[in-house]
Every structure is written in C-alpha cells, then in structure tokens.
Automatic annotation (TrEMBL):
Molecular functions (GO terms): metal ion binding; signaling receptor activity
Binding site for Zn(2+): 135, 282, 286
Official protein name in the record: HlyIII-domain-containing protein
Subcellular location: Membrane
Keywords of the record: Membrane, Metal-binding, Transmembrane, Transmembrane helix, Zinc
An annotated GO cellular component: membrane
Membrane topology (UniProt): Multi-pass membrane protein
Naturally occurring in which organism (per UniProt): Zopfia rhizophila CBS 207.26
Keyword match rRNA-binding: no
PANTHER family, alphabetized: ADIPONECTIN RECEPTOR PROTEIN, ADIPOR/PROGESTIN RECEPTOR-RELATED
Swiss-Prot/TrEMBL GO biological process terms: intracellular zinc ion homeostasis
Transmembrane feature ranges: 81-102, 114-137, 149-169, 181-202, 214-234, 284-306
Record-stated family: Belongs to the ADIPOR family.
Primary location group: membrane
Length: 314
C-alpha cells in the first residue's frame, strides 16, 4: 500500500501514461481508448470478486490514463464510482460553507466545537474519495488494486472512528469523563479492526465475511454510549438534544447497506446479468453509506445546536 503511494508521489506522470495498445484488441476501441468489456470468466483470479456480476468488466489496463478515461463510458463500476464521487465533490464545496455558517451564527464557538462539527464531513470526504479511487483504479493491476482496496478499508475505519468521536462529543457534551471513556473504547476497537481488516494474511475473497463482521461489530458498539446516555439523561433528552434519533437513522442505513453488501442481492437472486451495470448490491451499499454518513453529520449539527442553545439561530 505504501509502495503504491510512494510510486505515485515519485512518478506522478504515470497517472497520465497513455494506455498500451496491447490492452485492447479492437482497433476502433484502441482509437477511442474504450476497451472491449470482459466477462467474469475472462478475468484473472485477483480481479474476480462477485461471480453474480457476469459482464461489463474493464480489462486489466496497467495504465492510470486508461482507468481514468473509463469515467467517460458505462461499465459495471461506473455507478460505484459516481455514487461516491458526486457526494465527495458536494462535500468539498459544503465544508467551507459550514465554516462560514458557524462563524456567522456562532462566532464564539470554541475551536473544539468547530473541529468536531468539521471532523465527520471531512472524514466522509476522505472515505468517499478513497472509495472512488479504488473503484476507478481497480482494473489497473493486481498490486494497485490491492493497495487501493486497503486504502478503501482505511477510509471506512476512519469514518467509523470520526463518527464515534463526534457523536460521543455532542452526546456527552457536558461530561468530559464519559467522552474520554468511550473515545478510549472506540480507539481500542478500531485498532483491533485494523489488524483484522488490513493484515496481509487476511486479504482476498476468502476473508470477506471476516472483514464485514469486523466492520459491523465495530459499528454496533455504538449502541453502548447511546444506551448509557438514555440511562443518564432519559429517553426524551437523549433523542431531543443528544442526537439519538439521528444515530438510529444512521445505524439503519449502515445496517441496510451491510445486508446488501454481504447477501449480494439482487444479482444473486435475480436474472443473471440483469444487474451487471445498474442496481447491483454494491451500488446500493454505496448509496446507503452516503445516506448513513449524511444522517450522522446532520445529527451532530442538530445535537450541538441543542446543547449550545442555538435552535433559534438555525
């Protein structure tokens, strides 16, 4: 993973290397830099992941230029790319607007509050960008695909960590002890998840269920501070002023996404090839991730306004 990043930093011109004509077999395709799309059975082993997606695969390119050019035509990763690329671009423009909103409406807000309000949107931008990068470059080569996939995992774990930090901050806004307690808990769990998800011996389709389980269990540990908050502050206050209703919405979207991700429905149960380009489980999973992250960001904002008494300024 580090080697891939170092290679790009040392030789950025490789990002714009033209595709090798050998990558394409059709002369017209070579002219347009649009390769003939492959079937699942035509892919090398390292590229095979979901046997229920039968067609629409980009051939192995060994070219960043070819990978980036694939953004201009339809294949079975197009929706996976754009379901995260468009929200990432939106966030990039929204973050400065958020800072302007805080400065104009709450000029005396401490730097810690500003940091927390920015943390999850900023991490979501990172996560969505890394996901977009992986799905764009996954057909480059085995090494680049694996490296970008590990970065994608890092993005997911970063989003989980930042969501915990911000949610706990506003949920226990008046209790630094409980903030530190649950921050310590999530940092420990994220450390364990990193080992399970990023260890070189635990890569590949064989360990896919293990990685999914690690992500889900780490996310589910968020129920502990929510339940504790309800015990300390009561149901009404936890929901009305501490964001619990939005955490439940967030969990619902993430949970729904995990179901689609692990079950590979609808392509697993539907007509073969029907969902190859549009509507596959991973595309639905991407949309659920965006909705879950959006629910969390809005929940942090609402809970913070309630804590500082700023509902009238919203």
């Amino acid at each position: 993973m580090a080697s891939a990043i170092g290679l790009v930093l040392r030789k950025p011109h490789l990002l714009f290397r033209k595709a090798d004509p050998k990558d394409n077999t059709n002369p017209e395709d070579r002219k347009n830099l649009r390769p003939h799309l492959c079937t699942f059975d035509e892919l090398p082993k390292w590229y095979q992941d979901n046997p229920h997606i039968r067609t629409g695969y980009r051939p192995v390119s060994n070219s960043y230029h070819s990978c980036i050019h694939s953004l201009t035509y339809l294949h079975n990763e197009t929706m996976n790319v754009y379901t995260h690329l468009i929200p990432a671009i939106t966030l990039a423009f929204a973050l400065p607007t958020l800072q302007i909103k805080i400065s104009s409406t709450y000029p005396d807000a401490p730097w810690t509050d500003r940091f927390i309000l920015t943390l999850t949107p900023l991490t979501a931008l990172l996560t969505l960008s890394l996901s977009t990068t992986y799905h764009t470059l996954m057909n480059h080569s085995a090494f680049i695909s694996e490296s970008c996939l590990l970065l994608d995992y890092v993005g997911i774990l970063s989003l989980i960590l930042s969501s915990f930090i911000s949610g706990i901050y506003v949920g226990f806004y008046d209790s630094p002890f409980h903030q530190r307690l649950y921050w310590g808990m999530i940092c420990s769990l994220i450390g364990i998840s990193c080992l399970l998800v990023l260890h070189p011996r635990l890569q590949g389709p064989r360990f896919r269920p293990h990685r999914t389980t690690a992500f889900v269990l780490t996310a589910l540990s968020g129920l502990a501070p929510i339940i504790h908050g309800m015990w300390l502050y009561g149901w009404s206050d936890t929901v009305r002023r501490r964001g619990a209703n939005w955490w439940f919405a967030e969990g619902l979207w993430y949970g729904l996404g995990a179901v689609f991700f692990s079950s590979r429905i609808p392509e697993r149960r539907g007509v073969v090839g029907k969902w190859d380009l549009l509507g596959s489980s991973h595309q639905i999973f991407h949309i659920c991730v965006v909705l879950g992250a959006s629910a969390h960001c809005w929940g942090v904002w609402c809970a913070w306004r309630a804590q500082v008494g700023g509902w009238d300024k919203a």
